[in-house]
Every structure is written in structure tokens, then in C-alpha cells.
Give the backbone structure.
Amino acid sequence: GGIRRGDVIVFHYPLNPGKDFVKRVVALEGETVELRDGVVLINNSPIAELYPTALVGGDRCTSNYGPQLVPAGQLFVLGDNRCNSEDSRFFGFVPHENVVGKALVIYWPPQRLGLVH
């Protein structure tokens, strides 16, 4: 099926297409995304967190973003470790054509082997 909010995707990094990143889809085209005081808002409504976030770290944990409208054919992605993540807040939206696929399995490090949630 298509890409949905909450999916973990592999994509070509927009600023260096030779490099692949893995991030979680938070907002889809046509939606307005905003981060306010650590809460993700989609179309001005808070969404249930799709993943645990670290509560310690630097400005990236609490930095506000938006509101921004996700353009047609684009995605807004965040890292699960939002405090240390380079994601759409910094490099912008991810075009659908940059998506390689969905991440399904964690294989490294070995003690974290399992399915991506």
C-alpha cells in the first residue's frame, strides 16, 4: 500500500541524494504540520505520539516548527530520537520520488534485532 503516517521509510537524503536516511512519516501532502512545545500538531490538532521520544537533549527536543503546509508529492519526517535527529525540521520536505521503501526490520545492533514499530 501507500505511505501512511507512522510508517518508517528509507529515502534519499534531499541535500545529498547519494546518502539514504531512515525516518518516520509524521505528515502527508496537504496537511499542515506544526511542532509546539514538544507536541506535534496536524491541521492544528495534536496527534498521539507515534513513537517514544527522548526527553533529554538540546534545542531539537523543544524547538518549535511551523505551521507549514506539506506540498503535493512531499512528506514531513521526524527521527524517533527527535533530540538528536536531522529531519524535515532542518532539511525540509521529502519528495515521494526520493522514497526507497518502508523499513520493516531492525538488524543492527544485534541486540535490537526485531520488527520496526
Summary: Helices lie at 59-62, 88-91.
